[in-house]
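Extended Data, panel c. Modelled sequence:
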Amino acid sequence: MVKFFIIFLILVNFSSFSNDKIEINADQFTYDKDNTRIYATGNVEILDSEFKLFAEKVFVNNSSRVISARENVKVFNIDGTILKAEKIVADQNLNNALILNNYLYIPGKKFNEEENFLRIAAKKVERRNKTWEKMEFGKFTACRLCYNEEKKKFDPPLIQLKAKKIIHDKKELDVKYYDAFFDFKGKSIFYLPYFSHPSPLVKRKSGFLAPSFFQTHFFGFGSNVPYYYSINDYHDITITPKFSQKKNPALFFEHRKNFFNGELKTEFSATIENQEVNELKENKKRGHIKTVGSFDLSSNSYLDFKIHKTTDRNYLNTYKYNYKDTLESNIKIESLRSNNFYSFQSYLFQDLRQQFDRKETPKVLPRILIELNSDSKNNSFNYNTNIEFSNIIRTNGNETKKLFFQQKFEFPKLFDDGTFVKPGVHFNGGVYNIEKFQNPKNDKFEYNKYRSNFFPQLFMEFSKPYYKKNNDYITIVTPKILAIKSNKNAFFRAIPDESDINNFDFDFIDLFNVNRISGNDRFDSTSRIDYGLSFLKKKIYKDDNITLLEVGQSYQLGRNKYLENNSGINDKFSDIVINLRLIPQESIKINSYLKIDKKDSTIKTAYSDFLIHQKNSLLSISNIKSAPVVNINGENEIDGKNQFSVRYTQQIDDYWNFTSFTTFDKKNEIKMYNFGAKLKYEDECFGVSFLWTRQFTHNPEDPTSNNFAFLFSIKEIMESDF
């Protein structure tokens, strides 16, 4: 009888085995008597807290803590990645491994609401500490693989990177390629001895972004070449040099940083511009800065600030750095406690409009607001207390210090049938110190005056909805009335008009406001009755098929003789104001705010939007129509406009779409602002776009410009907003 003193193997039919770290299930186990080596076959499952491994054959050595799996190996990791391989030799947690003929699937960004996976394949993979991987004869693509029925195999991906050696460093978050080829539809079109791109695990990575090109009268032909630098997950910068044919280079710098309790965004630009007009002049330093910060000081208090300045009127417009008519710098410290609001503010302005005298630009240093409010409840007594202190100064022009107080008492009552009644009284008063003011009331120039003002206002609001419902629709008709007893001191002409009543634009939203004029210390001085009707018809349980029509008018018991002549409320009967919203079906939407002249029924003001979306087409048209602002002397202070913005988008197929757009003003003749077109291709892994825009800035330095942009994006490798 022969005795075996070496390893004694026994064939058993146990269905599972486990140790302290992993659990193994299989059809059959073969193991030695000390359980140091286990050989599992048939539907093998290895279960771990970090992964699940499936294979036909698995060898486990508990002494060396090595797992060897082969034949139809699949690993499902906790991070969502899926690994398929011919063979794996690894430690028991798969942190160190040798993998043959593998395919790795990494969850990517959704495309057209569908799940998408990045794909990495290699002949051989060496993994170290789960953070470093070397692939031999590897391939990478973010494209889907399509099966060709005629050839009975998968077609090559649209875009693919392949290399003799690929290093994926998960600590440095980059992927490096050695002897790399860029393939398009299976054909190599570009070779690089070395190439790198961000790891699919990283959200942001430093590098050049897609450049843009332009042509203008001022610059000639030029280009912007942005470079993005990621400092960490919460901090980055973008540097964009502007190179052009006629002018010296300019530099645009953007900085973004998130803090635990806020964020800071800064941009600035600068150039030393060569001034050549007939003869060489001294070079001119030009630039701008814009810094915006927002921070939570506590759970109910916060700090906001903004600094926005430029060297001259035309710089932002000429260099295309987000031009605005007025640049605002401010600081705000605000707190919201229960129903009460407290605010400390200061403002500086830089007006860039040609017709505006910069020395008349106001500075507000400081402005203090306090709002004390009760709970806003129906069938209950509500109050609201507003206090404002402001110090307004100018280099030239009037200066004002004011302390204004407003106390509101209201009692909203809602009855069971939906009837709503709200009586109320407002007490308003202010104390003013006024310097360098041309008083329009007595036509005298006042160097230094103290004034006070007090006026109450009484009002009563009433509305009653009438409701009808059938199987398909709900219909609600609501008449509404607001009666106000005002006071002649409400429009106090003996103080400067800092709110600028010419900014007032009467519409349906203003109709039922107790105080309709902008600002908080100059109101309608005439008593009035506002009346209107709201009609709503809506399909039940659906957001389409909606008709909303709101119509109203105001009757003034006196005349607002100090408002501009075409304000809409300067006569006994006001203009008619309308709010219209139509959604006859899901694909058509119409919104419009209208002001109709009471005398000849013509449209004086209109803000309208029209949207139609049919299958693969989208058309949007916006219109702003306004009459000129005419002062009490019959002079035009602000020109009227009839501006249109039109955009049309056509989805050509699943991946191609075309967009065209224009903005223009149509009065006696068409005045163009811009027009352009864009052609874009985008799939799950690649995108390219061609954009052309012609801009009419009406800027004396650069009246017109052409901008061309050719942008592309290789997703997960060289991404850009195209």
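The mean pLDDT is 87. This feature is highlighted in the accompanying rendering.
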